[in-house]
Design brief:
The protein has helices at about 15-25, 30-40, 45-50, 60-70, 90-95; strands spanning about 5-10, 80-85. Helix content is about 45%, strand content about 15%.
Length: about 110
């Protein structure tokens, strides 16, 4: 069975937490402000985001994006991880390039 390497982006929890904390401070919000805006009873959710233990839901990311005046991609930090994927004709058409010389499915065109 043949495999192809694929670079998969994943969320970097720690760096995303740092981004949230930095943007919160740059925009003059306290943890209590964020807690109140989201209607959280306790600030633990905000602290867990900032410590990189959890990532906000997509809905919450949209709110943070609006509050901080930035796109979600400026809040969520990613890193790349190399994974091996079982190579099939469908996958080869979608992710392989001409550099993938060993792939029996690779088109020569």
């Amino acid at each position: 069975m043949e495999y192809v390497k694929f670079i998969k982006p994943v969320i970097d929890l720690k760096l995303t937490g740092i981004q949230i904390k930095t943007l919160r401070k740059q925009n003059g919000f306290t943890v209590r402000d964020i807690q109140d805006i989201f209607g959280f009873e306790y600030p633990q959710a905000v602290y867990s985001w900032e410590q990189g233990k959890n990532v906000p839901t997509i809905d919450n990311l949209l709110v943070l994006s609006k509050l901080f005046g930035v796109g979600i991609e400026e809040i969520v930090a990613t890193r790349n991880v190399e994974v091996e994927v079982r190579c099939t004709a469908d996958i080869a058409k979608k992710i392989c390039s001409k550099k993938c010389e060993s792939c029996k499915y690779m088109l020569t065109a």
